[in-house]
Design a protein that fits this description.
Elements lengths: L3 H17 L8 H8 L6 H4 L15 H14 L7 H6 L9 E2 L2 E2 L3 H4 L21 H8 L5 H9 L1
């Protein structure tokens, strides 16, 4: 007989894989889209969230919260293993990148094809971060300076 808790987690993890699949056009995906619209929709599943950080998001939908908890249990990686791994790390919904002890997500940086998705997008080269003005010029995103500075301090 199968271990029911493990079976349940595996079944719910497949929801995430199907949700992230661009070839899957099921209408049920609208449910996740509506609940996750403030969080970049699939971006929350592509991050690196630790279960302890999920309550900070304040999800009222218990099903979505359970799916996120299961996904975090499976996908969270507490270690950065190389420079390449660091550069490819998601900026958004990453428990290793926090401001005020909360994972970061700036919808205005993420949306509209701006392309700001991982640490490498904030780098001038492999060892130097872009300055605030270089960032503004490159991405055309005007942000309050202290948000930008806070991101680099943590």
């Amino acid at each position: 007989m199968s271990h029911l808790e493990s079976f349940n987690k595996a079944l719910k993890s497949t929801w995430v894989k199907k949700y992230l699949d661009p070839e899957n056009h099921g209408k049920w995906k609208y449910f996740f889209d509506s609940v996750l619209q403030l969080f970049g929709r699939p971006a929350i599943f592509r991050g690196n969230l630790k279960q302890d950080d999920l309550p900070k998001y304040g999800f009222s939908d218990l099903f979505t919260m359970e799916i996120l908890q299961i996904w975090s249990e499976v996908s969270f990686n507490p270690f950065v293993t190389s420079v390449d791994h660091y550069h490819s790390s998601s900026l958004w919904h990453n428990s290793l990148i926090k401001i005020d002890n909360r994972p970061v997500f700036y919808k205005s940086w993420y949306r509209d094809g701006k392309g700001v998705k991982n640490v490498a997008h904030l780098m001038k080269d492999s060892t130097t971060f872009l300055s605030y003005h270089e960032y503004e010029k490159l991405f055309g995103i005007i942000q309050i300076f202290w948000f930008f500075k806070a991101l680099y301090l943590h």
